[in-house]
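YM 10:42: Midasin-like sequence, as discussed on the call
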Amino acid sequence: CLSVCVQELGVGNIDRCRGFSSHLFKLLLQQRQRLAGLTAQWLHLRRLTDSVQGLKADLQGHSEAPGCTLPPQASLREWVGRGQALAAQCSTLLQQLAWLLECCPEDLQQKEEGGGGRQLTLRCPSPLATQRQPPGCLLRRGDPAWNQLNQSMNLMLKQTQDLKVELDGVAQQTSERQLHSR
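YM 10:58: structure's back
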């Protein structure tokens, strides 16, 4: 019996067993790494599920109708109020810019071509040289740059006033019912 055991425990068989156990150990390590990755993903998914359930519970707790999940109304009302205030400020600013544009001197070349002959405005209303003046100082009422600026400013003013009217309507609705975000 011992002679048979000694023959089976030869160098070749021992190397083969060592290789097989090494292979099994590598497989064990790979499976352990995969299991650790799956466990981490499962924990992350579990946290996300808990967060979503917490949000759902909070939203349903603030809602009047069961099954209806609305965003928090206080923050939406505050946002609408802020939007109203900003739209009003922007409208005021654009209206003041329109008045400022109307104060620009008239284009002298158009006046002279029109046959007026008299100069109603100064040729150089600033003591600075023309090349040193900012572009706004060089605007003349009626010239192409002034017309373009005036047109775009009037368009922005109209858009801002339309937005203010829309926000006023939304603010009126908030006093009557709850807001739904889009």
